[in-house]
């Protein structure tokens, strides 16, 4: 009897952005607190791509999410992410995110969404 080949799992592409639709994302969080929850739900999952916007509306920013990722790496349990893409219209904020995450060995780059 012939066995069926394994079904490939679809990529996990997460986005944290208050406005952009991010059509490739499998899930989107619109605030930093939703983003933290989303990442915590995926801590034991390989995330193929994580898209981050710096400014999330009002006084909210991506920095609480970045702090969560830094703390995970500090505690030797970094999130397993293929690439983190930072796609912010705020160049100083975006560069801060890139530098912070690269320091903890996340593969991160600037991108346009």
Which of globular, elongated, flat, extended, rod-shaped describes the shape? globular
Rg value: 15 Å
Instruction: Identify the strand order in the major beta sheet.
Output: 2-1-3-4-5
**Uncertain segments of ≥5 residues (pLDDT<50)?**
none
Count of extended strands: 5
Account of the protein in words:
- The structure is a single chain.
- The N and C termini lie far apart (47 Å).
- Helix 1 (32-41) packs parallel to helix 2 (63-74).
- This protein has helices at 32-41, 63-74, 91-103, and strands at 13-16, 27-29, 47-52, 81-86, 108-110.
- It has 3 helices and 5 strands; from the N terminus they run E-E-H-E-H-E-H-E.
- The chain is of the alpha/beta class and 113 residues long.
- Helices cover 31% and strands 19% of the residues.
Summarize this, please?
The chain is built from 3 helices and 5 strands, in the order ββαβαβαβ. It has 113 residues and is an alpha/beta fold.
């Amino acid at each position: 009897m012939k066995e069926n080949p394994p079904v490939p799992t679809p990529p996990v592409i997460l986005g944290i952005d208050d406005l952009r639709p991010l059509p490739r994302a499998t899930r989107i969080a619109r605030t930093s607190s939703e983003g933290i929850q989303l990442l915590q739900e995926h801590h034991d999952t390989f995330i193929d791509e994580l898209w981050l916007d710096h400014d999330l509306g009002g006084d909210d920013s991506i920095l609480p999410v970045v702090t969560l990722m830094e703390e995970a790496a500090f505690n030797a349990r970094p999130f397993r992410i293929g690439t983190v893409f930072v796609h912010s219209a705020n160049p100083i904020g975006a560069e801060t995110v890139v530098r912070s995450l690269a320091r903890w060995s996340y593969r991160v780059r600037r991108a346009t969404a």
